[in-house]
Amino acid sequence: MEVTGVQYQEANIVNNRGVKQFVCSWLPASQEPRALVFMCHGYGMECSVFMRDNGERLARAGFAVYGIDYEGHGKSSGKKCYIPSFANLVGDCTSYFMGIQDREEYKGKPSFLYGESMGGAVALLVSRKEPLRWNGMVLVAPMCKIAPKMRPHPIVITTLSKLASVIPTWKIVPGGDVYDLAFKVKEKREKIRANKLLYHGKPRVRTALEMYRASCDLEARLDEVTLPFLVLHGAADMVTEPSVSEALYKQATSQDKEFKLYEGLWHGLTAAESDEDVDMVFTDIINWLNERSSRSSSANVSSSSSPIRQSDLSALETDTKYPKEVDLKGDHDELIQTPAAVVV
């Protein structure tokens, strides 16, 4: 399907655990892409509707954009918004992204990761798992550190760990609908809330624990981030604190890093601010990507797999065979019936 200079495509893939996952892409309709951008969505979110504007804007700017719905998210199979293993989630993204990178038509193209909120954590962990594959990252209000005032008491974590081994899928973790905190402009907020592919329930026990552990792992190793990156955050964000992005910017050892803090803006920088502010944010993102694409277009990104660091999240030992792609059959009715939860 082509819309205003953008060619949109959908498909299903089957990962190495036999789980069907939804994938989609936005490609420039009338020019060769200057680079690839791989999108990692937030917790409870999805790509085809919520991230559509992101994909279309980047494709019109000349980038080939690819997204995947995590297991249990959006149109992918699995218990809604249940993350039994963050390592599996990262492995799924890594396998799919690498399969796209290795297509003959993309050999030598610069590649960038793009992550929003929890997707920022996913992007950081994907980049750590295969560091030689990437030319940079764009991180929007990323989940990469636990702000001091949000840090749970050790007793809470101990209790959560015990519950996760007994009732991992139960939705008993405190936390409700955060749409009113995440998305500023009311009309846009209500449109997002009406998206039946999103998750609106309380976090499941294992999901909350996996997100906490991933955040702690990233926080302990922010100084190991060496890739070029742009991190963007709203100064009035009440979901992930701006201090989190500031810590990443200060502690990362990357020689090419940039931090943009937008006064008065909330968590949903690309989705629910005024049209003028959303345009401003995307202008900053596209300008950054254009500059890094130009810098790296003459350099070849390694097309072979780099060694996986065994210390990355204790369970990052996942099969990296590329998943089999199958045609989209439109059989997601049962997924659309279950409303969702948006957070990080």
TrEMBL record:
<dbReference type="InterPro" id="IPR051044">
    <property type="entry name" value="MAG_DAG_Lipase"/>
</dbReference>
<dbReference type="InterPro" id="IPR022742">
    <property type="entry name" value="Hydrolase_4"/>
</dbReference>
<dbReference type="Pfam" id="PF12146">
    <property type="entry name" value="Hydrolase_4"/>
</dbReference>
<dbReference type="InterPro" id="IPR029058">
    <property type="entry name" value="AB_hydrolase_fold"/>
</dbReference>
<feature type="domain" description="Serine aminopeptidase S33">
    <location>
        <begin position="31"/>
        <end position="270"/>
    </location>
</feature>
<feature type="compositionally biased region" description="Low complexity">
    <location>
        <begin position="296"/>
        <end position="306"/>
    </location>
</feature>
<protein>
    <recommendedName>
        <fullName>Serine aminopeptidase S33 domain-containing protein</fullName>
    </recommendedName>
</protein>
<feature type="region of interest" description="Disordered">
    <location>
        <begin position="296"/>
        <end position="316"/>
    </location>
</feature>
<dbReference type="InterPro" id="IPR000073">
    <property type="entry name" value="AB_hydrolase_1"/>
</dbReference>
